[in-house]
Design brief:
The complex is a heterodimer.
Chain A lengths: L4 E5 L3 H13 L3 E5 L2 H10 L4 E5 L7 H9 L6 E6 L4 H9 L4 E4 L4 H48 L3 E6 L4 E4 L1 H7 L3 H4 L4 H4 L6 H8 L7 E7 L2 E11 L5 E10 L1 H36 L11 H30 L8 E3 H19 L2 E6 L4 E3 L2 H17 L6 E9 L2 E8 L33 H11 L4 E6 L3 E9 L1 H7 L1
Helix pairs in contact in A: 2-3, 10-11, 11-14, 12-13, 13-14
Chain B lengths: L5 E5 L3 H13 L3 E5 L2 H10 L4 E5 L7 H11 L8 E5 L7 H14 L3 E4 L4 H14 L1
Parallel strand pairs in B: 1-2, 1-3, 3-4, 4-5
Helix pairs in contact in B: 2-3
C-alpha cells in the first residue's frame, strides 16, 4: 500500500521535525511548515491526504486556517494538534469539519495511529465519492436511455400502447392518442380494455381480454376509411414473467391500395392475353372444321389476322417486361451521360420508312442541330418508337405525322403530332393509363395492348421529364414531352 | 336442325367475331355480328335471332350486363337464349362467382361461360337450347 502525503503545520521547530521524522519512517511523504501562510501556499501547490494543524500559529489562528483549507474543497483529512484543548475550540473546529484531535503531548505510536486512521478515512471517503459519482452517472445513463426509448416510441408513425400486467395503460405515443382521440393524461393508468371497448377498437379490447391467446395476434380494422393492421403482442421479463401487452396499429391503406392496383393490373393483363388467344384459337378451329372448304385461299385473311394477333401477343409480353424493368429501376440519377439527339431520331425514321410507305403517311422531321439530351439511348428509342408508331397506326392513308425537337432553356422539347383519328376529349386524361385503349369502330382492327403510352410516360418521368397529350377526335393528336438538356448539364458541371 | 337458325354474336374482338361467325356459318347457321352494344341494338331492331352470344367487357367493363338487360326489356327477346362470354369471370375470383347468380337474374342470362371458348362448345349450347324450345 502506497502511503499518503502529509502536511504538518506547527510553529515549534522540534515538534514539526519530530512529527516529520516519525511519519517518514512510516513511509509517508511529509511537508512540514511553520506558519498558516506557508500552509496555504503548500495546499495550493501540492496535494495532501492528511493535514495536521497546530492551533497556536504565529500568523493565523487554527480555526481560520481550517476554514481556509475547507473552503478549497479538497479531499483531505484534517487533525488538530493542541496542548490547550478546550471545549470552545473543539466545538468550533468540529463545526469546520475537523476529523480528529491529537492532544499534546503524544507518543510516536499515538501519532502514527492517528495519521494511519486519517489516511484510511480519507481513502474510504475517496472511494465513497468515486462510487457516488459512478452511481450518479449510471442513473443519468439510465434516464437518458429511458428518454431515448420514449422519444423513439413517440416519433413512431404507428400507434403504440403498452398495457401492464394489470391491464392498465402504461405508455401511449402521440399517434395512439390521435387515433383514439383521447389525451395521454386521460389514458395513462386507465383500464385498456374499457378504453378500447368503442367502435372500431372493440376487436383490440377483445384481443386484450382474451387471456387464452398466448401468442401474438394480428388482425385488420378499419377506422374512418383507412385500413389498419393491429398487432397485440405479450411481453415478458428476462425470467419469463408476463409483464403485459404491446399494441401497435399501423396504417396499411397505401399498401392495400397498391395491392389492389396490382391485382387489377393482373386481371386486365389476363384479359389482354386471353383475347388474342381466343381469336387465334377460333381461327384454328375454323381451319380444322374446314368451315370455308378445302381450298386454302379463303382462309388467307383469317390467317393473316391470327398472325398479327400473335405478333401483338409477343409485343404485349415485351411491354410487360419493359414495365417491370422500369418499375424495378426507379428514377435515374446523374450517372446518365448526354447523348446527341439527331442520330437517334434519324435511326427511328429509317426504321419506319417502309411502314410509312405502306401506310401512305408523310413523316416530317425537324431537329434543331447539336442537341444533346440526358437519357439512355435505348430508352429514347423506346419512347420515340411508341409515339411515332402510334402516329402511323392511328392514322389514315394520305395522313401526316411530324416530329419536332427544340431546346427550351434547360430542357429539350419533343413534339410528335399526327393528323390521325384523334382521341375523344373525355379519354385524353386516361390515355397514359395502363391498358387503356379507346374503343371506337375506327380503332377496332388496330392491334395494340394499351401499354405503349404507359411505358412512355414512365420513361419520360424517370428522367425528370414531363409528357402531355392534346387531341381532337377525328383530327389528330399531339404528344409533347421534355427531357433534361445535355448542354445545361455540361455548363453546370 | 340448324336450318335457318339465326345466331347473333356480339363481341368487340373483331377477329374472334369473324372466326366464330365463319365457324358457325360453316355449320349451317345464319350468323349476324355486332362489335359493340350500339351495333347490336341496330341488328336487333331489324332481326329476331334464335340465339344470342354476347361479350361482357366491350366499351366498358359491364357493357355486356347493360346490353343483356336492354335486350330482355324488348318483348321479342324475352325467351331468346342469351349466353354471356367473359374473359374475366374466373380471374375476378370468388366474388364474381358469388355475384354471378344475382347478375344472371338481373340480366336473365341463360349461361355464363369463360373465354376462351371453343366453337364446338358453342355449337353444343345452341343445339341443346334451340332443339328443346
Amino acid at each position: 500500500m502506497s502511503h499518503g502525503r502529509v502536511l504538518v503545520i506547527d510553529d515549534e521547530y522540534g515538534i514539526r521535525t519530530g512529527i516529520r521524522d516519525i511519519l517518514e519512517l512510516e513511509g509517508f511523504l511529509v511537508e512540514a511548515v511553520e506558519t498558516g501562510r506557508e500552509a496555504l501556499a503548500a495546499v495550493d501547490s501540492q496535494e495532501f491526504d492528511v493535514i495536521l494543524i497546530d492551533f497556536r500559529l504565529p500568523d493565523i489562528d487554527g480555526i481560520t486556517l481550517l476554514q481556509a483549507i475547507q473552503s478549497r474543497k479538497l479531499n483531505v483529512a484534517t487533525c488538530m494538534i493542541t496542548a490547550y484543548a478546550n471545549i470552545e475550540t473543539a466545538i468550533a473546529a468540529t463545526r469546520e469539519g475537523i476529523d480528529m484531535f491529537l492532544p499534546k503531548p503524544f507518543s510516536p505510536d499515538d501519532l502514527v495511529g492517528v495519521v494511519n486512521n486519517l489516511f484510511k478515512q480519507r481513502t474510504i471517503r475517496e472511494q465513497a465519492e468515486r462510487l457516488r459519482l459512478a452511481h450518479e452517472a449510471s442513473l443519468l445513463a439510465l434516464a437518458s436511455e429511458q428518454s431515448q426509448t420514449h422519444s423513439l416510441v413517440e416519433s413512431l408513425r404507428d400507434a403504440v400502447m403498452v398495457v401492464n400486467r394489470d391491464g392498465k395503460v402504461a405508455l401511449v405515443n402521440c399517434a395512439m392518442t390521435l387515433l383514439l382521440k383521447i389525451t395521454e393524461t386521460d389514458l395513462l393508468l386507465k383500464p385498456a380494455a374499457e378504453i378500447l371497448n368503442q367502435g372500431a377498437f372493440i376487436p383490440l379490447a377483445k384481443a386484450l381480454s382474451d387471456r387464452t391467446a398466448e401468442g401474438r395476434s394480428v388482425f385488420d380494422i378499419e377506422i374512418e376509411n383507412h385500413q389498419y393492421m393491429v398487432s397485440v403482442t405479450p411481453f415478458y421479463s428476462a425470467n419469463h414473467e408476463a409483464l403485459g401487452h404491446i399494441l401497435t396499429i399501423s396504417d396499411i391503406s397505401e399498401v392495400r391500395r397498391m395491392a389492389m392496383e396490382k391485382s387489377r393490373f393482373i386481371r386486365t393483363m389476363v384479359h389482354e392475353l386471353r383475347s388474342p388467344l381466343g381469336a387465334i384459337k377460333s381461327v384454328l378451329e375454323v381451319l380444322e372444321d374446314r368451315s370455308l372448304g378445302n381450298e386454302v385461299t379463303p382462309y388467307t385473311n383469317l390467317l393473316e389476322r391470327a398472325h398479327m394477333r400473335l405478333n401483338g401477343l409477343v409485343e404485349l409480353i415485351g411491354a410487360l417486361l419493359s414495365l417491370s424493368q422500369i418499375e424495378t429501376q426507379g428514377r435515374t440519377g446523374a450517372n446518365v451521360s448526354p447523348i446527341p439527339i439527331d442520330p437517334v431520331v434519324q435511326e427511328i425514321a429509317e426504321l419506319y420508312r417502309e411502314q410509312l410507305k405502306v401506310a401512305e403517311i408523310d413523316l416530317t422531321i425537324t431537329v434543331e442541330p447539336n442537341l444533346q439530351g440526358v437519357i439512355n439511348v435505348e430508352d429514347l428509342k423506346t419512347i420515340l418508337t411508341n409515339l411515332i408508331g402510334n402516329a402511323i397506326k392511328y392514322n389514315r392513308p394520305g395522313g401526316a405525322a411530324s416530329l419536332r425537337v427544340n431546346r427550351s432553356g434547360d430542357v429539350i422539347i419533343f413534339e410528335v403530332a399526327d393528323t390521325g383519328l384523334g382521341i375523344k376529349a373525355e379519354n385524353v386524361p386516361r390515355i397514359f393509363d395502363d391498358f387503356f385503349r379507346e374503343k371506337r369502330p375506327e380503332t377496332r382492327e388496330i392491334i395494340g395492348n394499351g401499354l405503349g403510352l404507359a411505358i412512355v410516360k414512365r420513361l419520360v418521368e424517370r428522367y425528370s421529364g414531363q409528357i402531355e397529350a392534346t387531341s381532337t377526335e377525328g383530327l389528330g393528336s399531339t404528344f409533347t414531352f421534355s427531357l433534361p438538356s445535355g448542354r445545361s448539364i455540361c455548363s453546370a458541371g | 336442325m340448324s336450318k335457318n337458325k339465326k345466331i347473333l354474336f356480339i363481341d368487340d374482338d373483331v377477329d374472334f367475331l369473324q372466326a366464330q361467325s365463319t365457324f358457325l356459318t360453316g355449320r349451317g347457321y345464319v350468323v349476324l355480328t355486332a362489335a359493340s352494344a350500339d351495333e347490336a341494338m341496330k341488328v336487333l331492331a331489324a332481326n329476331t335471332p334464335d340465339f344470342i352470344f354476347l361479350d361482357l367487357m366491350m366499351e366498358n367493363y359491364d357493357s355486356g350486363f347493360r346490353l343483356s338487360h336492354k335486350i330482355r326489356s324488348d318483348e321479342r327477346f324475352q325467351k331468346t337464349p342469351l349466353v354471356m362470354l367473359s374473359g374475366v369471370a374466373a380471374t375476378a375470383g370468388r366474388r364474381f362467382d358469388q355475384e354471378q347468380e344475382s347478375l344472371k337474374n338481373w340480366c336473365q342470362l341463360d349461361g355464363f361461360i369463360d373465354k376462351p371458348v371453343s366453337g364446338k362448345q358453342l355449337l353444343d349450347l345452341i343445339e341443346k337450347r334451340t332443339s328443346t324450345s
